[in-house]
Amino acid sequence: MQHSRYVIKQPALENRAYTAEELSIMLQYCDERTKVIVTILASCGCTLGALPNLRMQDLVPIPEYNLCQIWLYAGDNECYCSFISQEATLALQAYKNYRIRSGEDITPKSFVIRNEFDKEDPTSVQNVKALSTRGYEEIITDMIIKAGLRKRATTIGTGSGGKIRHGVKLMHGFRKHFSSCLSNSDVNELYKKLFMGHSVQLDESYYDKGNEKSRQKCLQEYLKAVDMLTINEENRLKLKLEKEHDEIENIREKMQIMPESQKEILQFLQEPLYYTLDNRLTALVLIFQKFVIRHYLISWE
C-alpha cells in the first residue's frame, strides 16, 4: 500500500478576478440589459444580493464626470454607497431609453433591472418584476458560455450530482476585478472598504457618508480607478481624451497671467532704480514671487 505522503495532490483551483480582456469579450455578447448588469458589477464592486431591489432613485447622476453615485441596500442598515463608471451610466441610459420607447413608465421607484418582456405586447411591457439572484446568475451564465469564457476545471463527485468548479467564480469574479483595480490605482484603503461595503470598524461610526465634503472625497478616490474600471477600449480612450482636454484648458487659464507678468518685467527694468545688476535681479525675484502666488491662487480656484 502506497504511503499517503507519496500521493500527488491535485493543486488548488485558482480563484481569480475576471481580466479586462475577458470583460471586453463579455460585452460583445451582451444585449442592452446584460450590458448594464456587467458594467455595474465591474465598476461598483457590489455583491449579487444588492441588485434585485436596486431602484432608479438609488442612482444619483454626477453630470460633471458623466457617472453616478450608487446607493446599495438603500433603506437597510447595511446601506452603503459606491459609484458606477461613465461606461455603466451610458449603458443604463440606453437600457432605460429602450424601456421607455417600449411603453414602460419609468419612475424613481422603478427597478434598475427588470424581467424580460415582449416590446410588442403592452401587457408584457407593463408587467414589471424584479429579477431574483438566481435570475441574474442565469443571465450571466448564458452570456459567458456564449462568449466561450466558461471552462470546466474540475469535477467534484460522480454522476449527474457532481458539481463543476471554475477558476473564476461566476459573480464574485466581478467584485475581485473591482477590488484589484482600486488597489492597482492606489485608492486609499479606507475608501476601498467603503466602496465594497466592508466594515471600517470605528471609522464607520464617525464617518458621515452623507456629508457633501465626504461625498466629494469619495468621488476623488473613485476617479483614481475609473480608467481601469472602464472595460471597452474605445470608452477608455474617450475618457483619456476628455482628461487631456481638461488639462489643456487648465494650462490655458494659467497662461493668461503670463502677458501681465511680462509687462511688469519690462516696466521694472526700464526704471532707473534697477539699472544696477543687483537691483534688476531683485526686481526679477519679486516679479517671479508674484507670478508663483498667482499660479497657486488659480490652482486653488
Helices and strands, with pairings:
Elements: H1 20-28, H2 32-44, E1 59-62, E2 67-72, E3 80-84, H3 86-101, H4 122-126, H5 133-146, E4 154-156, E5 163-165, H6 172-184, H7 189-195, H8 202-206, H9 212-223, H10 226-229, H11 233-255, H12 258-270, H13 277-300
Antiparallel strand pairs: 1-2, 2-3, 4-5
Structure overview:
The protein is mostly helical. It folds into two domains: 20-232, hpI Integrase, Chain A, CATH 1.10.443; 256-300. The chain contains 13 helices and five strands. Strands 1-2-3 form a three-stranded antiparallel beta sheet, with helices on both faces. Strand 4 (154-156) and strand 5 (163-165) form a beta hairpin. The radius of gyration is 27 Å and the shape is elongated.
Summarize, please.
The protein has helices at 20-28, 32-44, 86-101, 122-126, 133-146, 172-184, 189-195, 202-206, 212-223, 226-229, 233-255, 258-270, 277-300, and strands at residues 59-62, 67-72, 80-84, 154-156, 163-165.
Q: Compute the number of helices.
A: 13
Rounded Rg: 27 Å
Distance between the termini: 79 Å
Q: Structural class, judged by helices and strands?
A: mainly alpha
Strand order of the largest sheet: 1-2-3
**What is the CATH T-level topology of the largest domain?**
hpI Integrase, Chain A
Fraction of helical residues: 40-55%
Shape designation: elongated
Largest β-sheet summary: 3 strands, antiparallel
The CATH superfamily label of the largest domain reads Intergrase catalytic core
| Low-pLDDT ranges | none
Strand content: 5-15%
CATH class call of the largest domain: Mainly Alpha
Order of helices and strands: HHEEEHHHEEHHHHHHHH
The count of DSSP E runs of length 2 or more, i.e. the number of strands, is 5
CATH architecture of the largest domain: Orthogonal Bundle
Counted up, domains total 2
Average pLDDT confidence is 82
